[in-house]
Design brief:
Blueprint lengths: L2 H31 L5 H19 L5 H7 L15 H28 L3
Helix pairs in contact: 1-2, 1-3, 1-4
Length: 115
């Protein structure tokens, strides 16, 4: 298989995983807003933490980025995913911030519902 084809496959997979985590974060944010903290919120928190552990293990890089690097010498931040370059560059900062606000919301909802 050609390098271009392999890179495209990695980019598609990486984008699908990114979309999945957006759905997870979106559901968690919705659950906080409507005060419906259920088992799926806790599963979502676990998935996001697991993703963070994987990124820490791989020196703040997605393992797919490391695989994609074999098929491209691009210096762009979005060489391995179908996102605008600015979003790929600040992706971790943006989504970590969103996650922190969601967790703070979950904590607030959890303790305010026990009164």
């Amino acid at each position: 298989m050609q390098n271009t084809t392999k890179l495209i496959q990695i980019k598609i997979l990486h984008t699908i995983i990114w979309l999945f985590f957006n759905v997870v974060l979106g559901y968690m944010a919705y659950a906080v807003i409507v005060n419906r903290i259920d088992q799926f919120v806790w599963i979502g928190i676990g998935l996001i933490i697991l993703e963070g552990v994987v990124l820490l293990i791989f020196n703040k890089m997605c393992p797919l980025t490391l695989v994609a690097r074999q098929y491209s010498d691009s210096t762009k931040d979005n060489f391995d995913i179908y996102l605008p370059n600015w979003l790929a560059k600040y992706n971790k900062l943006i989504y970590t911030t969103i996650f922190i606000f969601i967790v703070l919301g979950v904590i607030y909802r959890f303790f305010s519902s026990t009164e």
